[in-house]
Amino acid sequence: MNLEEVRNLFCKTVADSLCLSGWEAHKQKCYKFSKEKKNWKESKQECEFLNSRLIIINTPEDQKFAEKFHKQYPCWIGLTDQENEGNWTWVDGTPLSFSQWLDGEPNNAGDEDCAVLKSGRWNDRKCNYLFHFICQQRALRCIKAAATDNVCF
Ligand code: 2F8
Ligand code: CA
Predict the structure, then answer these.
(1) What 3-state class would DSSP assign to 141?
(2) Which ligand lies nearest the alpha carbon of 108?
(3) Which ligand is the nearest neighbour of the Cα of 124?
(4) In angstroms, what is the span from residue 105 Cα to ligand 1's centroid?
(5) Which of 12, 45, 95, 139 is deepest in the core (most CB within 10 A)?
(6) For residue 17, what pLDDT is reported?
(7) Tens digit of pLDDT at every position of the chain (153 positions)
(8) 74: helix, coil or strand?
(9) Does ligand 1 come within 6 angstroms of the Cβ of 113?
(10) Per the structure, how many domains does the chain have?
(11) Which domain holds residue 82?
(12) What is the SS3 assignment for the chain?
């Protein structure tokens, strides 16, 4: 194996799953389940303070991981319709393509504009309620720094 191949292998197998202490790696991303409970806005801010964002769930695979990760606690995810009632969007601005609402949800009961992961599926809740939350950030990645050099940052 030449140096380039060793570097490529390192980047693929190690760097993609490197996370900060206290974060769990999964498919090139790192996840942290909050110790404390906060309202949706403060949860979002706390994730941003940690250079991350509230979890975004776009695939059945993401959902499977989130289900396992949230344990028995309901927790905020990065999904809201606060801007425009009924128009659910993720915190990165993308619209909903995949969804896992519980039967009968979202029902906007008493004005519920933020989504929570509950028993492995989603419910809309009032955004000022206090829940745990899951932050997500990308795992360490290798970049091509020069024609012949891969480095990690
Ligand atoms: O507390 C709000 C929550 O209350 C119920 O769930 C326990 C509602 N579910 C049904 O009406 C089926 C939720 O929609 C609501 O968010
Ligand atoms: Ca609801």
Answers:
(1) coil
(2) 2
(3) 2
(4) 8
(5) 139
(6) 81
(7) 888 888 788 887 777 788 999 999 998 899 999 999 999 999 999 999 999 999 999 999 999 999 888 767 899 999 999 999 999 999 999 999 999 999 999 999 999 999 999 988 999 999 999 999 999 999 987 776 555 555 555
(8) coil
(9) no
(10) 1
(11) 3-152
(12) CCHHHHHHHHHHHCHHHCCCCCCEEECCEEEEECCCCECHHHHHHHHHHCCCEECCCCCHHHHHHHHHHCCCCCEEEEEECCCCCCCCEECCCCECCCCCECCCCCCCCCCCCEEEEECCEEEEECCCCCEEEEEEEECCCEEEEECCEEEEC
- Minimum CA distance residue for ligand 1 atom 4: 109
Q: Which residue has the tokens 């769930």?
A: 57
Write the CATH number for 107. 3.10.100.10
Mark out the alpha helices in 51-128 (DSSP H runs).
60-69
109 lines ligand 1 (CB under 6 A): yes
Q: Is 86 exposed, middle or buried (0-12, 13-18, 19+ CB in 10 A)?
A: exposed
